[in-house]
Amino acid sequence: MAELKVKINNLELKNPVMTASGTFGYGIEFADFIPLDGLGGIIVKGTTLRPREGNDYPRMAETASGMLNCVGLQNKGVDYFCEHIYPQIKDIDTNMIVNVSGSSPDDYAECASRIDALDRIPAIELNISCPNVHDGGMAFGVTCAGAASVVRAVRRRYSKTLIVKLSPNVTDVADIARACEAEGADSVSLINTLMGMSIDIERRCSRLSIGTGGLSGPAVKPVAVRMVWQVARAVGIPVIGLGGIMTAADAIEFIMAGATAVQIGTANFIDPTVTIKVRDGIDSWLDAHGCRSVAEIIGAACH
Ligand SMILES: Cc1cc2nc3c(=O)[nH]c(=O)nc-3n(C[C@H](O)[C@H](O)[C@H](O)COP(=O)(O)O)c2cc1C
């Protein structure tokens, strides 16, 4: 059996397979389907300082090889998370990681500092793809200065492993990744959803309540693999790859592009056991190809 363990900063993952935020609830919802402690990590739903209602319905639409969503970070806020959710998830034997969003750098930092106090949460993932309300509604993650401002503010108040999740809706993702690394990010994960739109031609109307939404699923995978490949060459910190992973072969593509670990999102809606199948598939592939560890194939792709 090959060694599946990998490290993200000082976070040890039993294997490189994690779940993507917003697609796996708080993990407990999937406990009847898979052994949660068989995963490398679980990234829970996006959490904000204050409760958020999310956008109006419809919030999801199926597209060719993917889906669009505009859920809009619906959650009950960080205090509710700490009081009611944390006690239910703290004893799951894997890395429980909280995805944090905000509308200003101070918002992110305050939310992060409250999570820092939770013993059994060893890392957070910053979602910098959400609207920067203070600066006119653009996402922080689309400029180096915006991304740096959030990472800097959070780094001052968060002591554990800090993962920054990058937006693909940019011209040069490697520049943004470097800006995050320079401000003290321990890892970057990518990609978040790609901006998209789908129109119901009979109603002459968008299929989503707010017009546009985020595209995910197999349709985005080649874009995601390309971005992981670019970022892995640009930074020294570990990269976590995601976007359209459905199978072990998909995950191995990301690892060969330079990802140390992967996350699985939309595929969980189709098959709630997919994460474990991908983990086992990576294991079998490594054995069949005479590899002794995942580490041997990280960044192994030539071009
Ligand atoms: C319904 C839904 C909700 C999501 N919510 C979040 C979120 O709260 N925070 C975040 O960083 N990403 C969120 N994402 C993005 C996913 O975590 C992931 O980056 C994206 O879907 C690409 O991966 P996939 O193709 O495997 O789904 C969401 C995606 C979907 C489909």
UniProtKB/TrEMBL annotation:
One of its GO terms (cellular component) is cytoplasm. Residues 4-285 form the Dihydroorotate dehydrogenase catalytic domain. Its cofactor is FMN. The keyword rRNA processing does not apply. InterPro entries: Aldolase_TIM (IPR013785), DHO_dehydrogenase (IPR050074), DHOD_1B (IPR033888), Dihydroorotate_DH_1 (IPR024920), Dihydroorotate_DH_1_2 (IPR012135), Dihydroorotate_DH_cat (IPR005720), Dihydroorotate_DH_CS (IPR001295), Dihydroorotate_DH_I (IPR049622). Keywords: Cytoplasm, Flavoprotein, FMN, Oxidoreductase, Pyrimidine biosynthesis. It catalyses: (S)-dihydroorotate + A = orotate + AH2. It is an enzyme of class 1 (oxidoreductase). Pathway: Pyrimidine metabolism; UMP biosynthesis via de novo pathway. One of its GO terms (biological process) is 'de novo' UMP biosynthetic process. Binds 1 FMN per subunit. GO terms for molecular function: dihydroorotate dehydrogenase activity. Its EC number is 1.3.-.-. SUPFAM superfamilies: FMN-linked oxidoreductases. FMN binds at residues 21, 45-46, 99, 127, 165, 191, 217, 243-244, 265-266. The active site is at 130 (nucleophile). Substrate binds at residues 45, 69-73, 127, 192-193. It is found in: Cytoplasm. Belongs to the dihydroorotate dehydrogenase family. Type 1 subfamily. Catalyzes the conversion of dihydroorotate to orotate. This is Dihydroorotate dehydrogenase. It comes from Marseilla massiliensis.
